[in-house]
Amino acid sequence: MNKTVSFKTLGCRLNLYETDSLASQFVQRGYKVDDDFENSNADILIINTCTITNQSDKKSREYISRAKRKGALVIVTGCMAEQYKQKLSSEEQIAFVVDNKHKNRIFDIVEAYLNGEFKTIDDFEGNVFNYQSAQNTFHTRSIIKVQDGCNNFCSYCIVPFVRGRAISRPIDDIIKNIKDELDFGFKEIVLTGVNISRYKYQGIDFEILVEKILEIPGEFRLRIASLEPDDYSDKFISLFKNSKLAPHIHLCLQSGSDTVLKRMRRTYSMSEFYGIVDRFRKIIPDFNFTTDIIVGFPNETEDEFQETISASKKIGFGHIHVFKYSRRKGTKADQMPNQVDEKIKNSRSKILRDLATELTNQNLKSMVGKYQTILTETIDKEGFIYGYGENYQRIKLKILNPKTNTFYKVKIVGIEGENLVGEVVE
């Protein structure tokens, strides 16, 4: 075949998982994958888009426009393809606009096209879970999709409209996928989905799923990417005593104000959120919580914003991903009165970002003198090796004969910028 394909992936870990699987499929069928999308002269350019915010749309559109100028076979997929399918399909330079249900069939779509078969997307049977295990990926960690879609319909969120209702992947498929990835040599497994704590398949819930994954033999680390605040059982929380399960969760707060949470149609109060954090930290005091927060939600007052500031300080997040509220057509929040002025959004965003930096630095300082197990990922020109500890903090090491994709037990001896500095211990 001797053809080249290049991918650009925007947005969430679900997209990363799906791109990894697609790329691996192309490699196994004789294609070359060019990982430098911006400068690529590949025959096929695939943009896996995101539409969670206006900025996501803008970035996706920029990459689509660049691809169209290159004269390649351009395929647009992902959530923006769902949201704007009709408009994108009318653009001559885009060969295919592939919805999320048929994303797993992109290789077959390309092959049919190159073989001169005139087929539409609907000629292929789609499935949001039918992705092959990815041996050739863009990441050191292996991302595993366990769930898709959401039933919450938060008032600001477009995801249920572009990803659909919640659906869980068969557990046997998940276990096989993980065992395949471990056989390929991956040492960290990251579970992902839209709302994975609501996993439910034939009586098996998320707690049982995690238990069964931890029972898989071998030296590996399991990381749960992101969870919604929920009434987690003591048994589930106690699973984090297992050294295989990383003591870090991205727990989505969105606002520290109960009144804003109600307008967002979130399903918890701040007292419940604090309770979740406290219960985890009673088991593991250094448990690292990172989060998403939206500023400038419709009718957000200064007092409500200050409640978010206070909550962030009280919880001590290791990292905060700050979003300015972005109106999404079709959501309830888009129709709400008293939309917050963009200048106020920008001001609040800066204040929260500055606080986030301060909290991250405090979190890093608290780790000095403690121990972590790093999984190494990259080596720089000076011979320093970098990776992440179980708390999902980046660690820098200087060791003889450094190896990537290797676990090292280290003592944290300092901080350099946003990195912890470690020394290997016996």
By DSSP (H or I, 4+ residues per run), the number of helices equals: 13
Helix content: 25-40%
Radius of gyration, whole Å: 22 Å
Mean pLDDT: 95
**How would you sum up the major sheet?**
5 strands, parallel
Apparent shape = globular
Quantity of strands, as a count: 21
Lateral strand order in the biggest sheet: 2-1-3-4-5
Strand content: 15-25%
Structural class: alpha/beta
Distance between the termini: 49 Å
Parts with pLDDT < 50 across at least 5 consecutive residues: none
How is this structure best described in words?
The longest helix has 24 residues, at 342-365. The chain has helices at residues 13-28, 54-68, 79-83, 85-89, 106-114, 159-163, 171-184, 206-214, 234-238, 258-264, 270-283, 302-315, 342-365, and strands at 4-9, 32-33, 44-49, 73-78, 96-98, 142-145, 147-148, 167-168, 188-192, 200-201, 204-205, 221-224, 226-227, 248-251, 288-295, 319-324, 371-379, 385-388, 394-397, 407-416, 419-424. Helix content is 33%, strand content 23%. The strands form six sheets. The chain has a five-stranded parallel beta sheet, sandwiched between helices. It starts with a strand and ends with a strand. The mean pLDDT is 95. The radius of gyration is 22 Å and the shape is globular.
